[in-house]
Amino acid sequence: MISHRLLAIIRKEFVQMRRDRLTLAMMLLLPFVQLVVFGLAINTDVKHVPMAVLDYSQSPESRRLIQSFTNSDYFDVVAWPEDTRAISRLIDSGTLKVGLVIDPDYARDVRAGRVARAQVLVDASDPITASSTLSNSAGIANVLGIQLLGRYLRPGTPFTPPQMPVQIDVRGWFNPDLLTANYIVPGLIGVILAMTMMMITAMAIVKERETGTLEQLITTPIKTWELMIGKIVPYILMGYTQMTIALLVGIYGFHVPVRGSLFLMYALTLVYIGCYLGLGLVISTVARTQQQAMQMAFFLFLPTILLSGFMFPRAGMPEWVQVLTLVIPLTYYLEIMRGIVLKGVGLVALWRWVAPMMTLMMAILGIAMLRFKKRLD
Amino acid sequence: MSDLVVDVRDLTRRFGSFVAVDRVSFQIPRGAIFGFLGPNGAGKSTTIRMLLGILPVSEGEGHVLGFDIRTSSEEIRARVGYMSQRFSLYEDLTVLENLHFFGGVFGLSGARLDQKVRELVEMTRLDGFEQQLAQGLPGGIRQRLALATSLLHDPEIVFLDEPTGAVDPALRRYFWERIAELSAAGRTVMVTSHYMDEVERCHDICFIHHGRLMAQGSPGDLKSRHLPGQMWQVRTSARAEVAAHLARVPGVAGAFPSGETVRYLLEPGFDPAAPAAALRTSGLTCSAPEPAEPTLEDVFVALSRKRGTP
């Protein structure tokens, strides 16, 4: 039998949610705005990077290399300096991000079937450009190399080159991670849910304490779990709505492919939402005013973002910090979401992340239940 | 036992070293209007909160409708209506939504809930306000909505904590009419107040002061027991001076200003002419003393004096 008391609470929460238009609008706009901001501002597919070219080879082969760079759309040649010092000056002053220096022996090496060399200098103070340049130049070199290889592989010619014929050294190699929308969007869904679920639950309950309606509720025969579940259910739906909006923006706005099962994603998200709703409940048992609740939510939110692996890879953190990240639900959710969205893996592969996240959820909800009970008496 | 809906023995509640309620015992028979009387901070709300199981009991025991208040608060809450001193409504819900919500929380649903809500809207004269948000409502209407909310589940006992605390005389009269109706319908009403005049309508009264129970009984009992002798009153504009002067006359107990008059108790065996004569010689302007009907305020003053607290 579904309890009438539970239904009454759920219905009331929905009416209140609907009446607070501003908050509702903010909650629904948040995933949209966040994704657009993150997706556009942290767009790491850097295109049309201004580049200087110093061609010591001055040959058809070297011109072909330069053309490959400009044809790729990733680079625009804007300067033809005389020597490497001129390139450094341009990069130091910030006028240019990238310089291409082609070896004097480049053409001879290509013709002789030896490894032909060129060098790319990158402004490493901008890791995003640097890493994108790294991969793009490597890609250009490979494409060019394969074309050259194809020329050698004429019938009757013995196959000799063990190495790619064109090798480009990139100096200023900085950030091995290539951040893209594909990588950001799944994580961002986790971040948005963490923030809103935690804050909205904490605020909703602290507000009842502040205005005295919580005491009113205590004098009714309502049970602790009914009150808790009744408060939580509407916010679970809110979380799912936010997630859906973020996914739609990701898929249609940023062409993020979802390779795995959507059903699995939504099912596991429930566990994740449970974690942060629980944390919100715990906050509500500690905070006396809505302002305190907000501050505490932020206090928990910052390490969540910084340590979970959303911003920086966890592998780069000191060992003890890595241990600390294991109590952050987002840590697991990131792995799960990236696994489903980018790798298309299923529950079996994800189980090593799902199991600890479920444990965390049960622990958090258990603490919330105990503390909530205490505060009612 | 069967006819006592509330039975409290030596109930005590401490907050640290402060004793808010000190060994209070009382019984309320079914259908009674029970007045819980005392100044602010006397321990009235604390006692009611213990009866509902919102506050744990420090010592002593109590039963409400036969349920132990220490262990069966759920059962008690389901059968008892409670209108707290600062009743809180959901400001962002309408009158009807508030009623439907609390009705649902008390386990009502469907047609029964609708009918109950309609009934209470009519009884508390909330018609016309149904669709208004609670936040814009004037005080009197909020108070009536609070009363309606506490009656949704047809409680056997209604605890009304200071229902007339800050309302106009018309609404006070309204509340006492409803209380009389509830009692006539067989419900028990426990009402706290610090207005001595209105609790005359109670069947039974407890005086509580500094957490201690000072007297219990019907208004008539209390008057005859604690006011031995005859009450008198004098009309005067110099109330403080007249009261001070009268207090020195032998046989006069507890002269105190009340409204336009000074009231005093003349103990049995003393000459009523003596205070009058004393006033005449004092030169203070006042009317001749006349006999007065004893009130509960007189009882309260007499009781406070006995304990040495004004």
The profile of the biggest β sheet of chain B is:
6 strands, mixed
Contiguous uncertain segments of 5+ residues of chain A: 171-179
Main sheet overview of chain A: 5 strands, mixed
CATH architecture group name of the largest domain in chain B: 3-Layer(aba) Sandwich
Give the strand tally of chain A.
5
Mean pLDDT of chain A comes to 81
What is the CATH topology assignment of the largest domain in chain B? Rossmann fold
Task: Find the CATH superfamily of the largest domain in chain B.
Answer: P-loop containing nucleotide triphosphate hydrolases
Largest interface: A-B, 25 and 27 residues
**Helix and strand element order of chain A:** HHEHEHEHEHEHHHHHHHH
Helical percentage of chain B: 25-40%
Describe the global form of chain A: elongated
Quaternary organisation: heterodimer
Proportion of residues in helical segments of chain A: 55-70%
The ordered H/E elements of chain B are: EEEHEEHEHHHEHEEEHEHEEHEH
Distance between the termini of chain A: 27 Å
Specify Rg of chain A, calculated over alpha carbons: 28 Å
Indicate the structural class of chain A.
Answer: alpha/beta
Number of helical elements of chain B: 10
Beta-strand content estimate of chain B: 25-35%
Number of helices of chain A: 14
